[in-house]
Specification:
CATH topology of the largest domain: D-amino Acid Aminotransferase, Chain A, domain 1
Bound molecules: adenosine monophosphate
Number of helices: 22
Number of strands: 22
Radius of gyration: 25 Å
Shape: globular
CATH class of the largest domain: Alpha Beta
CATH architecture of the largest domain: 2-Layer Sandwich
CATH superfamily of the largest domain: DNA ligase/mRNA capping enzyme
Distance between the termini: 55 Å
Structural class: alpha+beta
Length: about 600
């Protein structure tokens, strides 16, 4: 473990990516295979491989207490140290007593993590945690604590560990990435790399694959400048969801790869009817018939014809809940708008074109309810021919109800084609008329590229553009907001660094501001009169009228009339936009 910790310090000491991967590659190569596999997982900031469901369930306060007990330091002393580094691992390194030599191996740390994960209750976990930290030198404890907190903070993203494996074992990077994507296990990917068997990696169902992402476009002309064969769908305002279905078992994962099946108890039943194993990609939306949930004797088609997706704010009531009451399911019914198939009947579809995937998806959806009228990719229709009635009937639908559960719906997202900016404008207007955010414009010839934001999927919304940004500092407001942290400074990514791009103080509700104030107060890293620097964890979507060059912020840009559109709890800090995207928006608006 000491060697691991020293390596992490060395990685932190350089900002150069190439140097980081060289250090990690050589380190992994130097270890026996089992330890190298464990180290690869730890280096990604995780105690267990991504696909495993095991979690330690050790929160900040448990860690804090263990460090306090073992160091004998007072709360105040520890807080002073924390202010200096803003990270519990560094507190452990500075506060814990020196030990003679180190005897802790990576395998022992891994076993101890497994023990903590299976121990029941905080006191059993605290006991095992103390036992582990008691054996560690301060430097080792620093990284044990960081792994437990889920972030090493040494500027080493999972993708760099993949690069290091490719380098260390002299294998192609795309093969390592693919194996890790399919397995969700850097350790197993490393083993395959070392045996020259990366091609043997097979998909693990029920482990979420990264989502394909979209780039913003400003105009119909721009959208059509990237590719010829455009498939166009409404952009629904809900949450992205990947459904894994196998032999009647269904699990649903969010964009942050968390399992959210529990939040939508009415969906698995609807999907379990698929006769084949599948992974589907789509958006869960709040759904409304004219009077709430569809009646039980109403045909699926009728329900759909009078239904529409509701704004995100309605869906919000359904999010983050462990238990969902029948009343809530009835009051806020949901639909799963499916737009892609990543896997079907034993075949991984990522390397098939969207055109082919869409056909496979159409067939799958038909098998859910063969009697439902269905117009899929065979019926790509010109926008002008698409009345709203045609729109309603062009969806395959499966509805499922039991006496206990309200009706849930799984709908095939309707698709159209567009070959001119006018086509797109017409589609855009009707999407907005249906209450949706705008359009998603996708290249029919493109493959599914997990985790990548390319120009194969484009999103067109009404705002000039919005940026997803990370909050870096907060300030107390004025007037009635004097007691709450309501002014947010936010940043975009410039490589591994966050650079501030703006500040906004409107857009959230009072309840949201109160909730965020509480969060910021417990996650501040430093405090200066009315301003707190905070852990960069909260993602916001901000809109603005235009973008200017400015020296006020580190990014070199400033936003004119920035406003917070909404909190984005469905996004991780790493999902926020980059300075390149900001630059593109700036450049585009000048033309
Ligand atoms: P944004 O969240 O603004 O980056 O926009 C991209 C998101 O739009 C995706 O991640 C999906 O959650 C959502 N979305 C809504 N409708 C669609 C659609 N038809 N195809 C793909 N993504 C969609």
């Amino acid at each position: 473990m000491l060697h691991f910790a020293q390596t992490c310090d060395a990685i932190a000491a350089t900002t150069k990516k190439l140097e980081k991967t060289a250090i990690v590659g050589a380190y992994l190569r130097s270890l026996p295979l089992d330890e190298a596999a464990t180290a690869a997982i730890f280096l990604s900031g995780r105690p267990f491989p991504a696909y495993e469901e095991t979690t330690l369930q050790v929160g900040g306060s448990l860690l804090w207490r263990a460090i306090a007990e073992l160091s004998g330091k007072s709360e105040h002393e520890l807080t002073v140290i924390y202010r200096k580094y803003g990270d519990a691992g560094s507190v452990a390194a500075e506060a814990l007593p020196e030990r003679k030599g180190s005897s802790l191996s990576l395998t022992e740390v891994q076993q101890s993590f497994s023990g903590i994960a299976t121990a029941r209750g905080p006191s059993a976990k605290a006991f095992l945690l103390r036992q582990l930290l008691e054996r560690a030198t301060p430097l080792e404890a620093k990284y044990i604590v960081k792994i437990i907190s889920g972030d090493l903070r040494i500027g080493l993203k999972e993708s760099l560990v993949e690069e290091a494996i490719a380098r260390g074992f002299e294998v192609p990077l795309d093969q390592v990435k693919r194996a890790n994507m399919l397995l969700g296990d850097l350790g197993e990917s490393l083993r395959l790399a070392s045996a020259g068997k990366l091609a043997d990696a097979r998909l693990r169902l029920f482990h979420p694959i990264d989502f394909m992402l979209a780039s913003p476009v400003e105009s119909s002309e721009e959208a059509l400048s990237y590719f010829q064969n455009a498939s166009v769908e409404d952009k629904y305002d809900g949450i992205r969801a990947q459904a894994h279905i196998s032999q009647g078992e269904v699990r649903i994962f969010s964009r942050t790869r968390d399992e959210i099946t529990e939040s939508f108890p009415e969906l698995p039943g609807a999907l379990a009817g698929l006769p084949k194993d599948a992974i589907l990609d789509g958006e869960i939306v709040a759904w409304s018939g004219s009077a709430g949930a569809p009646a039980r004797d109403e045909s699926a088609k009728q329900a759909l014809a009078r239904g529409r997706a509701l704004p995100f704010s309605t869906l919000q009531q359904r999010l983050g809940r462990k238990k969902v009451s029948a009343k809530l399911m009835h009051d806020v019914p949901v639909a799963y708008m499916v737009f892609d198939a990543l896997y079907a009947d034993g075949e991984l579809l990522l390397d098939r074109s969207l055109y082919e995937r869409a056909k496979i998806l159409d067939k799958l959806m038909m098998s859910l309810e063969p009697s439902t009228a269905h117009v899929g990719t065979d019926a790509f229709v010109r926008p002008a021919e698409r009345s709203s009635a045609a729109h309603a009937s062009s969806q395959a639908l499966f509805a499922f109800a039991t006496p206990e559960l309200p009706l849930a719906q799984v709908l095939r997202t309707p698709v159209a084609t567009a070959s001119s900016p006018e086509d797109l404008e017409t589609l855009f207007t009707s999407a907005r008329d249906r209450g949706n955010e705008g359009l998603m414009i996708k290249d029919l010839d493109s493959l599914y590229t997990p985790g990548r934001r390319g120009k194969s999927w484009l999103k067109m919304k009404r705002e000039l553009a919005t940026l997803d940004v990370v909050v870096t500092a907060v300030e107390y407001g004025h007037g009635k907001r004097i007691g709450v942290l309501s002014d947010y400074t936010f940043a975009v990514w410039d490589g591994d660094r966050l650079v501030d791009i703006g500040k906004a103080y409107s857009g959230l509700t009072d309840a949201e501001i109160a909730e965020m104030t509480e969060w910021f107060l417990t996650h501040k890293t430093s405090e200066q009169r009315l301003r707190l620097e905070v852990e960069p964890k909260i993602v916001l979507e901000v809109a603005f009228n235009n973008m200017m060059r400015s020296t006020r912020h580190e990014s070199g840009y400033a936003l004119r009339f920035p406003r917070i559109v909404r909190l984005r709890p469905d996004k991780l800090p790493g999902d926020a936009d980059t300075i390149e995207t900001a630059r593109e928006i700036y450049d585009r608006q000048r033309h």
